[in-house]
């Protein structure tokens, strides 16, 4: 029999590939089906948001930062507002804090649902995607009710919220929370004990606890590898220390344990949402009472001269933020994120830097896939839940 | 551990380092260090048992053009064990914007430092792979510098379509056919 000639093959996976969640390019060196080396290439979605933000007034940055990461839009804008509020030295009212907790947790459920749906679909469980997007639709409806916008509501403001909660908000969220618990059991019934899914994900894309820390991984990926770090517990903000919830962790560090951590996190978020919803009175303060930052209510703008002037000032000049630097970490759906902002004391930020957990996850991707099979790459990319908009900004 | 205790530990670990605490309004204790002692201070922060800043959350920079020293490189560190956060800063002159890499201590710094190089043009000495990360590889200039215009058009070689002559195309076809035989 003639000798079979083999050679190492270089394959470009992406940037246009349905399972790369955007435009991630992987240059893979393959020996048969085994991956010898992997070089992730990013930057295809770089839009210069950080440079643009330097040209905007403080409140105008909010829509920009929401568009960085379409799955944690409200969490992003909340983190930005909290950093700016820290520099301003202002404290938002108790009710706003609870509303922010509620919105952030709904956002986490939203993000994890999209993750579960797409990840499930990529490893062959298409029905999971249909179920997850069904529930996500309800969350988008809540966003629409809240702010008239489904994906990027821009509902957060420095100093509080854009306006008060709409009528029927409590009922809508309550109805979703009642419905969601049993649905979560249904997703688990589809995947947790599913032999095919377990075969595809167990022991795949493994990363050790030490590597996870060294590569700066946070959030569900790190917690699935045994790093017990959750900003909500370690450095509580928004009064998270007064809520009752657990931080699920696993030890294996593979794709399956990431799945387990995220599903468990959705249950914890559900608990948090219920607690937050109970604490929010239907009517009350939605922003701080500071005429420099919060524009006056519309009925006063239309009837009082002073209010009109104030409205004009807030919208034309904005407000100045004392010079300094602030970074308030927030536990987003993909782990610790936040905005490291520098102010020079004017009405525009001097520097806005987003901490992007997806960027570090992409960097560590090489660690997770080298030595594995090419078919597993898709399961691993899915399991680290990267949003390329957040990677490239 | 408060700010003064932290500074004492660092002074002990890196004798001669010009450490300087700065006021801070957030969770982070802010410490300035001079460029030459950054590696010593960084490894002390990571390895001393009373510090253990195992997680490098962020490496970024700010450009204060036209002020000198022009750049500040900012490292955000987290000690999960002791629930502490530190913001370590290094001032750099515009003429001589280079600093030692910390990617040997925290591999996470690999891409973070590449991003700072890409957008600010700050060189990280000893970095294993200092290439552009977000911008195209043949981009000119460093976009996040303050003296870089907000709107600019640049034609980038790497995105231009590859032009093949007819002869080359036919030769390729021929080679392809031969290979399949």
Please characterize this protein's 3D structure:
The complex is a heterodimer of chains A (393) and B (181). Chain A is α+β, with helices and mostly antiparallel strands and 393 residues long. Chain A has one domain (59-290, 320-367): Cytochrome-c3 Hydrogenase, chain B (Orthogonal Bundle). Chain A contains 16 helices and nine strands. Chain A has helices at 49-53, 61-66, 73-88, 94-122, 126-147, 169-191, 195-201, 209-214, 219-224, 231-234, 255-279, 298-301, 305-316, 357-369, 374-384, 388-392; strands at 9-13, 25-31, 34-41, 156-157, 160-161, 324-327, 330-332, 335-343, 351-355. In chain A, a hairpin with a 2-residue loop joins strand 4 and strand 5 (160-161). In chain A, helix 3 (73-88) runs antiparallel to helix 4 and helix 6 runs antiparallel to helix 11 (255-279). The termini of chain A are far apart. With 181 residues, chain B is an alpha/beta fold. In chain B, the strands form two sheets. Chain B has a five-stranded mixed sheet. In chain B, strands 6-7 form a two-stranded parallel ribbon. Chain B is elongated and about 75 Å long. The model of chain B has no long low-confidence stretch (mean pLDDT 86). The A-B interface holds A 42-43, 46, 48, 50-52, 55, 83, 86-87, 89, 213-216, 218, 227-229, 234-235, 324-329, 336, 340, 342, 350-351, 353, 355, 359-360, 362-363, 392-393 and B 23-28, 30, 54-58, 60, 62-63, 74, 76, 78, 80, 83, 85, 87, 106-108, 110-112, 115, 119, 132-136, 143-144, 150.
Q: Assign a percent range to the helix content of chain A.
A: 40-55%
Separation, N- and C-terminal Cα atoms of chain B: 73 Å
Tell me the number of structural domains of chain B.
Answer: 1
Q: What count of helical segments of chain B does DSSP give? A: 4
Strand content of chain A: 5-15%
Estimated structural class of chain B: alpha/beta
Strand order of the largest sheet of chain B: 1-2-5-4-3
What is the H level of CATH, i.e. the homologous superfamily of chain A? Cytochrome-c3 Hydrogenase, chain B
């Amino acid at each position: 029999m003639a000798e079979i000639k083999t050679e190492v093959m270089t394959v470009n996976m992406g940037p246009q590939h349905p399972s790369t969640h955007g435009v991630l390019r992987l240059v893979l060196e393959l020996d048969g089906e085994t991956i010898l080396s992997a070089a992730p290439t990013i930057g295809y979605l770089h839009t210069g948001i950080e440079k643009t933000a330097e040209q905007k007034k403080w409140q105008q940055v909010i829509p920009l930062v929401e568009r960085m990461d379409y799955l944690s839009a409200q969490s992003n804008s909340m983190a930005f507002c909290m950093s700016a509020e820290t520099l301003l030295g202002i404290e938002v009212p108790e009710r706003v804090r609870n509303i922010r907790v509620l919105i952030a947790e709904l956002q986490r459920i939203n993000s994890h649902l999209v993750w579960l749906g797409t990840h499930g679909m990529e490893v062959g469980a298409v029905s999971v995607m249909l179920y997850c997007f069904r529930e996500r639709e309800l969350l988008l409806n809540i966003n629409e009710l809240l702010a008239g916008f489904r994906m990027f509501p821009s509902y957060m403001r420095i100093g509080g919220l854009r306006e008060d909660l709409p009528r029927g908000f409590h009922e809508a969220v309550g109805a979703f929370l009642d419905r969601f618990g049993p649905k979560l059991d249904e997703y688990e019934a589809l995947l947790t004990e599913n032999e095919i899914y377990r075969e595809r994900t167990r022991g795949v894309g493994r990363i050790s606890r030490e590597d996870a820390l060294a590569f700066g991984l946070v959030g569900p990926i790190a917690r699935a590898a045994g790093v017990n770090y959750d900003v909500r517990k370690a450095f509580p903000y928004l009064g998270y220390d007064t809520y009752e919830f657990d931080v699920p962790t696993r030890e294996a560090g593979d794709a399956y344990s990431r799945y387990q951590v995220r599903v468990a996190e959705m249950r914890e978020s559900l608990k948090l949402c219920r607690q937050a919803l109970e604490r929010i009175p239907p009517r009350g303060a939605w922003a701080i009472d500071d005429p420099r930052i919060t524009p006056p209510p519309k009925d006063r703008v239309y009837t009082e001269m002073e209010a009109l002037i104030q409205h004009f000032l807030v919208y034309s000049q904005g407000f100045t933020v004392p010079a300094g630097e602030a970074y308030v970490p927030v536990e987003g759906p993909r782990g610790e994120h936040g905005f490291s902002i520098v102010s020079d004391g004017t009405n525009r930020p001097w520097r806005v830097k987003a901490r992007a957990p997806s960027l570090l996850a992409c960097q560590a991707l090489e660690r997770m896939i080298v030595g594995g099979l090419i078919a597993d790459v898709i399961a691993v990319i899915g399991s680290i839940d990267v949003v390329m908009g957040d990677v490239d900004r | 551990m408060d700010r003064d205790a932290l500074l004492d530990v660092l002074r002990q670990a890196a004798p001669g380092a010009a450490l300087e605490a700065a006021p801070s309004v957030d969770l982070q204790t802010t410490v300035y260090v001079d460029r030459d002692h950054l590696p010593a201070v960084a490894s002390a922060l990571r390895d001393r048992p009373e510090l253990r800043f195992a997680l490098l959350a962020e490496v970024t920079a700010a450009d204060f053009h036209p002020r000198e020293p022009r750049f500040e490189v900012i490292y955000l560190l987290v000690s999960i064990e002791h629930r502490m956060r530190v913001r370590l800063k290094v001032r750099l002159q515009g003429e001589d914007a280079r600093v030692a890499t910390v990617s040997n201590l925290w591999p996470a710094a690999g891409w973070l430092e590449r991003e700072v190089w890409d957008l600010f043009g700050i060189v990280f000495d000893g970095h294993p792979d200092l290439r552009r990360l977000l911008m195209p590889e043949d981009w000119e200039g460093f976009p996040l510098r303050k003296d870089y215009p907000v709107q600019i058009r640049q034609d980038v070689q790497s995105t231009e379509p590859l032009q093949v002559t007819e002869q080359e195309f036919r030769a390729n076809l021929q080679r392809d056919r031969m290979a399949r035989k």
